[in-house]
Amino acid sequence: MKQAILKLDGLTCPSCMQKIEHAVAGVAGVQDVKVLFNAAKMKAHFDAEQTDADHLANVIQGLGYTVESVNVKD
Amino acid sequence: MTEFTDTVKEQYAAEVAQSDYDHKHPTAGAMTNHIISNHVVMTNRLRQARWFVKGLNAGQLAATFKATGAANFDWIDRIGQDLLDEDEIPANIASEYAAWNMLAENGEAKYLDAAGMIDGIIHDFNTDNLFVTRAIALAQKENKPVLAAELTALYGWNNRQIRQYQALLGNTARVGLNEEDEDNDD
């Protein structure tokens, strides 16, 4: 499993971040989604054979929110 | 039953459309409506705690919850008036409060012991502050200094409640509340 760390707009509404968390958790191959409200970050582990971090960012942007950066850790 | 004219319906439809847009492109007004909704739900939680608290200190705690609830109610009105002053529309119906609050309201909480009730209240104030700090930044960005100042005062009041309720549990202000981000992954 790899870990995606997505930095959102620092002013994203905290309840929107919860909605984002639920949307990302629904993507096949994603596990352990965690939202850090103060840091405006979302962290998720994912199976690289089923999805990738850019797809997760696209899911968030498709909801109408801004993703400021995408990092991946092995 | 009250009949709403087409003009009234159009006014409300326009308000809902604007509210949805403001939420996705966050504005101080939209974020402040989350805060009002949080505090409306907080009023219910404090009343619930006052009605159902048990134990040797129940009377004293009920009085404390009542005093916090009364002050909390005043904040709802103050912040709502500030939004009206800025030509914004404060949340004012139950469905808006239900949709926009982010607190942990539930019926089970009435059966908690006093410490559990207090812990829930502390976490609600802490959750509310997530919105308050964002709303302050947005109000400053939008050049709304009075709203920013009022929200800053609310932030101070929330922090005071957190510290005082934590003290009842034998804790200092931030015990169990700070977000953990162990990685340096920016």
UniProtKB/TrEMBL annotation, chain A:
Q: Which UniProt keywords apply?
A: Metal-binding
Segments spanning the bilayer are none
Q: Has UniProt tagged this entry with the keyword Nucleotidyltransferase?
A: no
- Keyword Metal-binding in annotation: yes
Q: Which domain of life is it from?
A: Bacteria
Gene3D superfamilies given in the database record: 3.30.70.100
Task: Give residue ranges for domain HMA.
Answer: 2-68
Q: Which InterPro entries does the entry mention?
A: Heavy-metal-associated_CS, HMA_dom, HMA_dom_sf
PROSITE patterns with a match to the protein in the record: HMA_1, HMA_2
Matches recorded under CDD domains: HMA
**Pfam annotation, one family:** HMA
This protein's name: Heavy-metal-associated domain-containing protein
According to its UniProt entry, this protein's organism is Lacticaseibacillus pabuli
TrEMBL record, chain B:
- Name the InterPro entries on file: Ferritin-like, Ferritin-like_SF, Ferritin_DPS_dom
Domain of life, source organism: Bacteria
Could you tell me which Pfam families the record lists for this protein?
Ferritin
Q: Which residues form the Ferritin/DPS domain?
A: 33-174
Name of the protein in its database record: Ferritin-like domain-containing protein
Organism from which the protein derives: Lacticaseibacillus pabuli
